[in-house]
Write a structure and sequence with these properties.
With 371 residues, the chain is of the alpha/beta class. It has three domains: 76 residues; 118 residues, no CATH class; 154 residues, no CATH class. Helices cover 58% and strands 9% of the residues. A six-stranded mixed sheet has the order 2-1-3-6-4-5. Strand 1, helix 12 and strand 2 form a beta-alpha-beta unit. Helix 6 runs antiparallel to helix 8. It is globular, with a radius of gyration of 26 Å.
Length: 371
């Protein structure tokens, strides 16, 4: 659930009221009727979710995680840190799409100087609300910029139309008449060429390792497959770190409701509560496998002065008392992931800074793999 999308609901209300109050005939009966339809369309999906979680007996948790805790989440990053987040994320986005952004700027100017007020208010308003949605809480994670893509696509289309229209006015040669189309095609081809390797040449494994060096994304598939082949469908697993994709790859349920640990590595009043709850859930479930992720970004990449280390100390002790390592993978930057599977005769050595280990519960070691 992405709460930032509330900005799009607010935009729809804003544009709805703009259209009403700019109408020469103010019909308040239509305002009430159409306003009800708008609110009904907004409310039905939300009400359906509320009823679904209420049916499961999870409404309180649903409400807490989607509406109560996000107020804490949204106030953790000061603007001074937000600017740094933006400067880290935006240059890569700009580099691969700068020509399209020029088209978007041309489209913005064309809309301002040539289009009707209805189009100006809709497209520019949509763009502004989208930028606010991206900026909420100042995290500026790269995927947050996707919220601005629909509005940017409209501006790019407007820019392409402006260029094409400028050339079509020329009644000369074919090249002049369709020059706008050629310019737009050129801009698109250059933007695609920046991502040629990513989109057309690399395998999914190569994309993961080059885009996210030092991250255990490929290794997560290997461990997920191993767990799938060496456990029963009703076995549970736990991951100490933030690699929830392993639950998906392994087709196994989590031993805890905390499928990632970022929120335990921040400064807010709920940190210790989250840690103790995760610990109690794992201890009660006694998962067949635990995966420990010793990669900084799988916990949280920002240094915190007063970090609560309860989950760290408990994790090492709990694994040491109840589990035995059966494999480890090194995922250091710039190097191919190096896998090692422990045997009594040949235990693995761990010398890498970034690694991920898989551990099996000791009383399960004597059982056949799928029992």
């Amino acid at each position: 659930m992405k709460q930032h999308a509330l900005l799009f609901i607010l935009f729809s209300g804003f544009y709805f009221l703009y259209k009403f109050f700019t109408n020469k005939l103010l019909n308040f009966k239509n305002l009430i009727l159409n306003g009800f339809v708008l609110l009904f369309g907004v409310g039905i999906p939300f009400a359906s979710l509320c009823m679904y979680f209420s049916h499961l007996g999870l409404f309180e948790k649903f409400w807490w995680w989607t509406w109560v805790y996000p107020r804490t989440y949204a106030t953790q990053i000061p603007w001074s840190e937000g600017k740094l987040n933006f400067m880290i994320s935006f240059p890569g986005i700009f580099y691969s799409t700068w020509l399209l952004q020029i088209l978007a700027l041309l489209g913005l100017l064309a809309i301002i100087f040539k289009e009707t007020w209805d189009k100006k208010i809709f497209i520019i308003g949509f763009f502004i609300f989208s930028l606010v949605a991206v900026s909420v809480a100042f995290y500026f994670y790269p995927h947050y910029f996707l919220l601005a893509m629909p509005a940017l696509a409209l501006l790019v289309a407007a820019g392409a139309e402006a260029v094409s229209s400028a050339f079509k006015k020329n009644k000369g040669s074919f090249l002049l008449k369709y020059g706008g189309l050629l310019v737009v095609a050129f801009f698109l081809s250059i933007s695609l060429s920046h991502e040629k390797s990513y989109l057309f040449e690399k395998s999914s494994k190569e994309v993961a390792t080059t885009t996210y060096p030092g991250q255990p994304f490929v290794a997560a598939q290997v461990y997920g497959k191993y767990i799938d082949e060496n456990s029963k469908p009703d076995d549970k697993i736990a991951i100490l770190g933030s690699e929830p994709e392993i639950y998906f790859y392994s087709k196994r349920r989590a031993a805890t409701g905390f499928v990632y640990t970022y929120e335990m590595m921040k400064e807010h009043p709920h940190v210790h509560e989250f840690e103790t709850q995760m610990i109690s859930e794992i201890e009660a479930a006694k998962p067949k496998f635990i995966i420990y992720v010793n990669v900084g970004t799988s916990w949280f990449s920002v240094k915190i002065n007063n970090i609560d280390t309860t989950i760290y100390h408990w994790g090492f002790q709990y694994i040491n008392d109840n589990y035995q390592r059966i494999g480890i993978v090194s995922v250091n930057n710039g190097n191919e992931a190096s896998y090692c599977w422990d045997t009594p005769q040949s235990p693995c050595n761990q010398n890498a800074d970034n690694w991920m280990g898989i551990y099996k519960r000791k009383e399960e070691l004597q059982k056949p793999n799928n029992q």
